[in-house]
Design brief:
This protein is mainly alpha-helical. Helix content is about 65%, strand content about 5%. It has a domain of about 220 residues. The strands form two sheets. It has a two-stranded antiparallel sheet with strand order 1-2. A two-stranded antiparallel sheet has the order 3-4. Helix 7 packs antiparallel against helix 8. The longest helix is centred in the C-terminal third of the chain and has 51 residues.
Length: about 325
C-alpha cells in the first residue's frame, strides 16, 4: 500500500514537470530588449496560466526532455497546412474544418492504436489457450472478465431481447472511453474525453444508434416516440395532450445524448483542473516547504481520478444501453 502511495506521489511530481515548462518564456529579440524600459522593483514576470493549456486542445505536444531548465519537458509543434474546407450551415453560417492534427487528435490515434494492439493480442492469446483446453490467464483473462461482465450484466439486461447486435458497439465505447480516461492520468499525456467535441461526437454516434434501433424495432410505431398520442383517452383530451407532450418527447430525444456528453466531459475536466491547481501551488509559493501539502492533495485526487476513469466509462455504457432498451420498448 505504501509503495502504491509513493508511486502516485512520484507521478504527481512528474506531472509538475510540464507545468514548470509552461513558465518558460522564450527570449525576446535583442532589439526589443534594448528598446524596452525597465522599472526597478517591478515584477520580473507576469502570472502564467498553467491550467488552461492542459485541459484545452492545441497545436503542441508536451514530451519528456532531459533539459532541467525547461522543467524536463519540451513542446513539439504539430504539422499544419493539411486540407481545410468550409461547410455551409443554415442560420449559423459557414463552419470551417481544418484536418490538420491537434493534441487531442493525436491522443485519439494513440487510444485507437493501443486498443487494437491490446485487444487483438488478448483475443489471440485467448484463442490459443482455448485450443489447448485451458482458461485464459494474465491480460487476456482480465479483459475476458471485463467483457463478460459488461455484456452479461450491463448491456443485455438493459437493451433487452435480441440485444447481441449492440454488444460490439457498446463494448467498443466502453474500452475507448476507459483507455482515453486512463491515458489522461499519465504525465505528458492529454485526456481526449476532457474535450466537449470528443464527448459530443461519442454522444452523437450513440444518438444515431439509439434512434436507428428504435426505427428497426418499432417500425411504423416509431412515430409514437415523436408524437404523443394517448390511445386510452377520449379525443377531446388527446389533442391538447398531444400538443403539450409532443414537444417534450422531441426534446427528450436530444437531452439524452446531451447528458451523456456533458457528464463525461465535466467529470474528466473537473478532476484534472483540481490536480493541476494543487500542483500549481508549488510554483505559486515557490517553496519546497509548501510542496508536501499540495503533492499529498494531488495524490489523493489522482487516486479518486483513477476510480472516476472506470466509473465514467461504465456509466456512459450503462446509460447508452438503457436508452437503447427504452426506445426499443417504447409504446404509448
Amino acid at each position: 500500500m505504501k509503495s502504491g502511495f509513493f508511486r502516485f506521489a512520484i507521478a504527481a511530481l512528474v506531472l509538475a514537470a510540464p507545468l514548470a515548462a509552461q513558465e518558460h518564456t522564450p527570449t525576446a529579440p535583442a532589439a526589443q530588449v534594448q528598446g524596452a524600459e525597465k522599472t526597478e522593483g517591478a515584477a520580473s514576470a507576469e502570472p502564467t496560466d498553467i491550467i488552461t493549456p492542459h485541459i484545452t486542445d492545441g497545436k503542441h505536444l508536451e514530451l519528456p526532455s532531459l533539459n532541467p531548465s525547461h522543467g524536463f519537458a519540451k513542446e513539439v509543434t504539430l504539422p499544419s497546412g493539411w486540407p481545410s474546407f468550409d461547410i455551409p450551415l443554415p442560420i449559423i453560417g459557414p463552419f470551417h474544418v481544418d484536418t490538420s492534427p491537434t493534441k487531442l487528435i493525436v491522443m485519439l490515434w494513440v487510444v485507437a492504436a493501443l486498443l487494437v494492439v491490446v485487444l487483438v493480442s488478448a483475443a489471440r492469446a485467448h484463442t490459443q489457450r482455448a485450443a489447448q483446453g485451458l482458461p485464459p490467464k494474465g491480460l487476456a483473462g482480465a479483459i475476458e472478465a471485463m467483457v463478460l461482465y459488461i455484456r452479461n450484466e450491463v448491456i443485455l439486461p438493459n437493451v433487452g431481447h435480441h440485444g447481441e447486435a449492440f454488444v460490439p458497439y457498446l463494448l467498443t465505447i466502453f474500452f475507448f472511453i476507459l483507455t482515453a480516461n486512463l491515458l489522461g492520468l499519465i504525465p505528458y499525456m492529454a485526456t481526449a474525453t476532457g474535450n466537449i467535441a470528443v464527448t459530443g461526437m461519442l454522444a452523437i454516434m450513440t444518438f444515431v444508434v439509439i434512434e436507428v434501433a428504435g426505427m428497426r424495432a418499432l417500425g411504423k410505431g416509431y412515430i409514437n416516440t415523436i408524437i404523443f398520442w394517448p390511445h386510452d383517452m377520449p379525443l377531446a383530451m388527446r389533442l391538447p395532450m398531444s400538443l403539450i407532450m409532443s414537444p417534450v418527447e422531441i426534446i427528450s430525444k436530444f437531452t439524452k445524448p446531451f447528458a451523456l456528453a456533458i457528464r463525461l466531459f465535466a467529470n474528466m475536466t473537473a478532476g484534472h483542473i483540481v490536480v493541476l491547481a494543487m500542483v500549481g501551488l508549488i510554483f505559486t509559493f515557490q517553496s519546497y516547504v509548501a510542496a508536501p501539502a499540495p503533492v499529498a492533495m494531488a495524490v489523493a485526487i489522482m487516486l479518486l481520478e483513477l476510480l472516476v476513469a472506470f466509473v465514467q466509462a461504465f456509466i456512459f455504457t450503462l446509460l447508452s444501453s438503457v436508452f437503447i432498451g427504452l426506445v426499443r420498448e417504447s409504446h404509448h
